[in-house]
Structure formats: structure tokens, C-alpha cells
């Protein structure tokens, strides 16, 4: 049977804006309150999806969430009509208003952790939505993420859906942004690398001092239990707290992997030598071959430059003949040191042979590069056939979604627009139509 890695990219929602909500994420804070362009953001995302589809890769779409989250405002004590609630929130709690408007569900690497059927004891694909407890605006996502994933992978024979972990910082879980799977063919059993920033129950262990470590060791082990993974196929690695303090808020800002390749910055992890030896040992035991570790040294690309350009927030995709391409943001091309590094990388003896650059600037300005925008799901032919076919990219879906964006999205969104009640209705009308296009059923609160 054939196996594939499918990428499900987040469709940018109609309220995409720059609100400065993510302490520890340099781009989010430095672009706070800039004017955004939701239409162009959504189209940049669609272009990337279409390009990967055209490269012959399996590409899907993950629907955005309803924003503003009026239920969250009601739960926090604001009452009356939608217009009244927005006015009160603007007057008394503008930070809360900005948070409930965030289109952050676009970064679907944070939607869930996914374990393919070749790794799990019951041979089903397992999904656990990430609770995203560390940031209020993101903690609003997991319930709806779960519903959308269930509508995309709605078949009990092949797919197992778990509830997100308890909503508490002890189990802070940022999903696939801190999870990488290594394998030979996508259908072979893999080694799942879970990366965490701190231990929740042991304060003597290393932890960052300036910025938050969003993801805990305890969350990693819980997801691994839920997904019925075997210890021989799992490695737990701690992020270097110093890089978190330099703005590496997720591991996918400093490392990316695919099949037998780990592309990483030398400062990414703690106990690097020991952990990569364990990873290689477990990989070799399953596959009779070794991993490729592609290490980038600080004197080649500094951590600061990596955070600025998102060199590691790239996608490593299989392009056949045991070769891979890097899907990189335009910022990598624009940086002299990073583009020089990439030029020489593709000539080295590694499977990485090509680089494709994409303009995802609207997302980058909130700290989201190509890798943040996608959730990877390795699927067999049969599992792909059991997936909701309406969410899979095609020439037709690309056209339909571009028209849908043209019809419903604004060209500009600034802070003052957030009290405009017509934006609430615009967003609902757009999403209601989208659930029909993607055949998702009633996944949003306003539809239930
Ligand atoms: N690395 C991965 N996988 N995802 C990137 C997520 C970016 C997101 N930015 C934001 O939520 C900023 C929103 C704002 O400030 O308006 C975050 O910090 O969680």
C-alpha cells in the first residue's frame, strides 16, 4: 500500500490582525497594532497550498475559527447585543477584545499532535488537539479544532480523536510545532520526537527566565500515552532554555525534520549529543539505516538571524528519488547570510536538494512561517480515501476558495475596526459558506 505525508494548511480567517498578543514571539510584539490585510494573508496561504499541490504533494485545507469569539466575551461578563458587548469590551478591556479577535488558528502546526497508524498500537491515526494554555487568545482554539478535525477525519475505523489535555499550564501543549516524526517510508513505523520547554512538576530542572516555556514534558508524555506509542519509537528532548529566551517560542522555529533528516541549529536542544544518539539508535533499530543530522552552527547562521528569517520554520518535503525540497519564507532569500547558507546546503551530501521561496509576509509578521501554517498527517492510501475529500486541494477548490476570499474578506483591518459589529456578521457569513464548501457540517458555535 502507498503512504503519503499530507499537509493541511490553515486558511487565514477574515479577522487576521496584528495585536501583539504573544510575549516571547518577537514578530508578534514588534508588529503590534500595524494594519493587516486579511485578504492578502488568505491569498498568500492559498498560493502556498496550490504550489505544493502542483508539486504533486498531498495538500489539504484546515478551516479557520470563528472570531471574534463572542462566547468568550459573554463568559467574561459582557452582556447585551453583539454591538454592546464589543463597545463594553473596547472600553473596559481592550486587551481581551484584541485576543478574542485573533485569527491565530491559521497556524495549524499548533492545532494538534498527530500520530500515524504505523506508530500506534491500535493502528489508527491519532489526533489530540493542542490546549494552547499559555496564551489566552490561543486557549480559545482547542474545542473547535477538535470539531474541525473530526469533520475532516470522520471514520472510526481509521481515526481516533482525543480530547485536548487539561486546560492548565502544567499540561501546556502546543501540538505539532513541538513534535517531529522520523521514518523511512511514511508507512514504516517512525520515531516521534516530542520537544518540551520545561518540567511542570520539578522546578529544579532548567527553564527559561525571560520568556515562557509554553510546552511541558508532562504534556508530551500524556500525548504519547494517549496515542498508544511504544517507548522504542519515542524520544523526548528539552529545548535549550537560552534559545526560548531569544524568541524561539516553539521548536519549529529552530529545527525541522522529515523522514531521515533533522535540520537544526546547534543551540536548539539541551543534551544534544546524548539525545541525537538516542534518536539515531532508535531510528537505526527500526530501519537498518542512519539518520542525517544537518547541523547549522552559530557562526553560519546566528539564533537571532534564524528567528528573524525563519530558516528552520521551513517545510522539508519529499520530491521523489530520495530528495527533499525546503519550502522557505521570502525572508530567507532576503537575508545575505541565510541565502548564502541555503546555496551551499543544496550542494552538500544530504537529501536536501532544492529551495522554494514563498511570500507569506502577512503571517510572518505575527511570527508564523511556512511550517507554522501546516499540520502534517501521514496517511495510507486507504486513510486518505476515508478523509473528507472536500478539504483536499485541487485546481477547482483553489478557484472556489479564492473567489470566497474575494467575496468576504477586507483589504485592511486596524484596531478601530474591532468594534464594528458588521465584522462579526461578515465573519459568520463567510464561515457558514465555507463549511458548505468544505462539507464540514456545523462546527462553529454560531451554527449550533
Ligand atoms: N511556530 C508555530 N508553529 N506557530 C506560530 C504561531 C504564532 C502565534 N502568533 C500569534 O498568536 C500572534 C498574534 C498577534 O499578536 O496578533 C503564536 O505566538 O502562537
From TrEMBL:
Transmembrane segments: none annotated. The active site is at 174, 250, 372 (nucleophile). Pfam families: AstB. Pathway: Amino-acid degradation; L-arginine degradation via AST pathway; L-glutamate and succinate from L-arginine: step 2/5. Substrate binds at residues 19-28, 110, 137-138, 214, 252, 366. Keywords: Arginine metabolism, Hydrolase. One of its GO terms (biological process) is L-arginine catabolic process to succinate. InterPro entries: AstB_sf, SuccinylArg_d-Hdrlase_AstB. Its EC number is 3.5.3.23. It catalyses: N(2)-succinyl-L-arginine + 2 H2O + 2 H(+) = N(2)-succinyl-L-ornithine + 2 NH4(+) + CO2. One of its GO terms (molecular function) is N-succinylarginine dihydrolase activity. Homodimer. Belongs to the succinylarginine dihydrolase family. Catalyzes the hydrolysis of N(2)-succinylarginine into N(2)-succinylornithine, ammonia and CO(2). This is N-succinylarginine dihydrolase. It comes from Psychrosphaera haliotis. The gene is astB.
Amino acid at each position: 500500500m502507498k503512504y503519503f505525508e499530507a499537509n493541511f494548511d490553515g486558511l487565514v480567517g477574515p479577522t487576521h490582525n496584528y495585536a501583539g498578543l504573544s510575549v516571547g514571539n518577537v514578530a508578534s510584539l514588534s508588529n503590534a497594532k500595524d494594519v493587516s490585510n486579511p485578504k492578502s494573508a488568505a491569498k498568500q496561504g492559498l498560493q502556498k497550498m496550490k504550489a505544493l499541490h502542483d508539486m504533486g504533494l498531498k495538500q489539504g485545507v484546515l478551516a479557520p475559527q470563528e472570531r471574534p469569539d463572542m462566547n468568550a466575551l459573554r463568559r467574561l461578563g459582557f452582556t447585551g447585543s453583539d454591538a454592546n458587548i464589543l463597545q463594553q469590551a473596547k472600553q473596559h478591556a481592550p486587551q481581551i477584545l484584541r485576543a478574542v479577535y485573533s485569527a491565530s488558528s491559521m497556524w495549524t502546526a499548533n492545532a494538534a499532535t498527530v500520530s500515524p497508524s504505523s506508530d500506534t498500537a491500535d493502528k489508527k491515526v491519532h489526533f489530540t488537539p493542542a490546549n494552547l494554555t499559555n496564551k489566552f487568545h490561543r486557549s480559545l482554539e482547542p474545542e473547535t479544532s477538535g470539531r474541525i478535525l473530526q469533520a475532516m477525519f470522520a471514520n472510526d475505523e481509521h481515526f481516533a480523536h482525543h480530547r485536548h489535555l487539561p486546560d492548565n499550564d502544567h499540561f501546556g501543549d502546543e501540538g505539532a510545532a513541538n513534535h517531529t516524526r522520523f521514518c523511512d517510508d511514511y508507512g514504516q513505523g517512525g520515531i516521534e520526537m516530542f520537544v518540551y520547554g520545561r518540567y511542570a512538576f520539578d522546578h529544579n530542572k532548567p527553564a527559561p527566565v525571560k520568556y515562557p516555556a509554553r510546552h511541558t514534558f508532562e504534556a508530551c508524555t500524556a500525548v504519547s500515552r494517549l496515542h498508544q506509542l511504544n517507548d522504542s519509537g519515542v524520544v523526548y528532548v528539552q529545548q535549550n532554555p537560552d534559545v526560548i529566551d531569544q524568541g524561539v517560542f516553539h521548536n519549529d522555529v529552530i529545527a525541522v525534520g522529515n523522514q531521515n533528516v533533522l535540520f537544526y541549529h546547534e543551540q536548539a536542544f539541551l543534551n544534544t549529543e546524548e539525545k541525537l544518539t538516542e534518536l539515531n539508535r532508535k531510528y537505526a533499530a527500526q530501519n537498518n539505516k542512519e539518520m542525517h543530522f544537518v547541523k547549522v552552527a552559530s557562526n553560519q547562521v546566528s539564533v537571532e538571524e534564524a528567528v528573524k528569517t525563519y530558516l528552520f520554520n521551513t517545510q522539508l518535503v519529499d520530491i521523489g528519488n530520495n530528495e527533499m525540497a525546503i519550502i522557505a519564507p521570502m525572508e530567507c532569500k532576503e537575508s545575505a547570510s541565510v541565502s548564502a547558507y541555503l546555496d551551499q546546503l543544496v550542494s552538500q551530501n544530504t537529501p536536501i536538494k532544492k529551495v522554494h521561496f514563498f511570500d507569506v509576509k502577512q503571517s510572518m509578521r505575527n511570527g508564523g512561517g511556512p511550517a507554522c501554517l501546516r499540520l502534517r498527517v501521514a496517511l495510507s492510501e486507504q486513510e486518505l480515501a476515508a478523509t473528507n475529500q472536500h478539504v483536499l486541494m485541487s485546481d477547482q477548490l483553489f478557484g472556489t476558495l479564492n473567489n470566497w476570499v474575494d467575496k468576504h474578506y477586507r483589504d485592511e483591518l486596524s484596531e478601530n475596526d474591532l468594534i464594528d459589529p458588521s465584522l462579526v456578521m461578515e465573519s459568520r457569513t463567510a464561515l457558514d459558506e465555507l463549511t458548505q464548501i468544505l462539507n464540514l457540517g456545523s462546527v462553529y458555535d454560531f451554527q449550533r
